[in-house]
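Predict structure. Chain length: 679.
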Amino acid sequence: MASEVSRKILVTSALPYANGPIHLGHMVEAIQTDIWVRFQKLRGHTCFYVCADDAHGTPIMLRAEREGITPEALIEKFQQQHLADFKDFLIEFDEYHTTHSEENETLVREIYQQLQANGHILTKTIEQAFDPVKEMFLPDRYIKGSCPKCHTPDQYGDNCEKCGATYNPMDLINPISVVSGQKPITKSSQHYFVSLAEFAPFLADWTAPNAGHVQPEVANKLQEWQQIGLQPWDVSRDAPYFGFKIPETENKYFYVWLDAPIGYMASFKKFCAAHPEIEFGNYWSQESNTELYHFIGKDIVYFHSLFWPAVLKGSGYRTPTEICAHGFLTVDGEKMSKSRGTFIQARSYLNHLHPEYLRYYFAAKLSRGIDDIDLNLDDFVQRVNSDLVGKLVNIASRCAGFILKGFDGRLATELADAEQHQRFIDAEKEIAVAYEAREFSKAVRLIMALADSANQYINDKQPWVVAKQTGRETELQQICTQGLNFYRILAIYLTPVLPSIAARSVDFLNVPSFQWQDIQQPLLNHRINQFSPLLTRIDPTNVQAMLEETQILVEKEKQMTAANAFDPPLADEITIADFNKIDLRVAKILQAETIPEADKLLKLTVDLGAEQRQIFAGIKSAYDPEQLIGKLTVVVANLAPRKMRFGTSEGMVLAAGPGGSELWILEPDVGAQPGMRIK
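Prediction complete.
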């Protein structure tokens, strides 16, 4: 095979958010990208793979506040976790950085100022939901309420998960801020926008199906969005916000979706600083003749296929060669779900199962399309055990013993069947085309068909029978040499998918390395090393243990989420005189009744020592009435009576918790008596 021209390629995958652990959905993309990059390197091309943690935005700011640490400490913690998970899944980055870096801040400012100088930035005043307690503007996903269309409760501020309706967050019925639990208000603010409409002709050409920059199904969706009209893209956020401040402003920050993709460039810039022989401009300038590929999930194609090319074009940089989108991961046919216990973290998998099991299974399902792939756990066990252990590793284990025992580890000087060996070599072109096109499932099918042929060859030649017959030693050596050469070719073909098995195969076969061109020449008259099992079968009990660990982690997260759902900051400072105005009394609950017409209220009769009172308390979802009778609790005794359609409430019962079933009334210690004042 003639060597193809060496290519220069830069590859990125979407940046994991530095706000939580890596899960198996992330691994679909990381594994797909890593396989493609390893294939390019195996072929001898110059290919760099860079990534980073996406480290800015409101969620990171709020989580850091809840944990009582700085945002910088939070993103450092998760970056270390992410890197450990990726490393143990054998993902090999040339550089893994963070968007909260000097390189990224410099590039973001330069690109924004270039967009501004070229007339692509406009300003306008917009109205947004504002949390009056937290004193911050709220992203849509930080507002919840009942859907204005179907009235389903607990829906986010952008769309209803039940009926699919989209709406303005303030259109929700009884909207609340998930940060403080209070009702948001509307407030005006000046924002900065990239004028996408100016790029409409360019984007129409760039995203056309025949341009080759996006997959056909993605191109069709992008055309729909463009026909609706490209609206100005808001690239600013108001303080408080964790990110980079916009130059010449007091309280405006770059929106995370501006600085995140620029993080690809910043990560590569950091890599170039450590490798002076590599020039940043050769890969990112408009004159660049290198290749640039972004691997992403289909949920962010809008950002990467419209907004990102427009930003690059408008600021004087080159645009991507291709956006490689993929589908989502389902588990046993269902969307990854915390409620079902199938939201599997990468570390939970790694605690119980070998990473190459999953790398192979994903490869066997991945294509260049954007269809979702399913992790069917029963099929996962069966396929890995059948293909990797029963077929691939079996070839080496069936032949190595005879060579090591009977021939001191030395392979024959010629093959038993050169024609059959050539069939394995001739498959190279079709397998390479499948890898290049990201049709990994096709590549795996072709390779496993060859593995079937190799096993059939060994079955037909029966080396275990030949070994018992005097005078057939040369034939035995050639048969087993043939089998091990089959294995070597298959191991090279699968090196991008199974890098650890490939590395151990290199040691076993006693060769310097695996390179794609090694397929062309058989390994003859060569001494191999001792063979040890390269992979063991999946034990289904390990899969069950992974699921049990997942369920435990899901329950812990639910408890933490409930405890922190509305965790407002401490109230403004008061004096002792202010506190003395509130008359808190121990009360005994004498009666508790449901109110059929009320969703949240219970009607309580309480004893305050000198008198009895009626109080309506919003604790119906947390307590059955009979649970409360006889309990001591604490009430605000001097609260002005409130007339309600069920009667008059003459006080307030004190409780803690985020709401719903997560509420706990305050209970005084043993010895307290009704009517005692709390002070």
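Summary: The longest strand covers residues 121-131.
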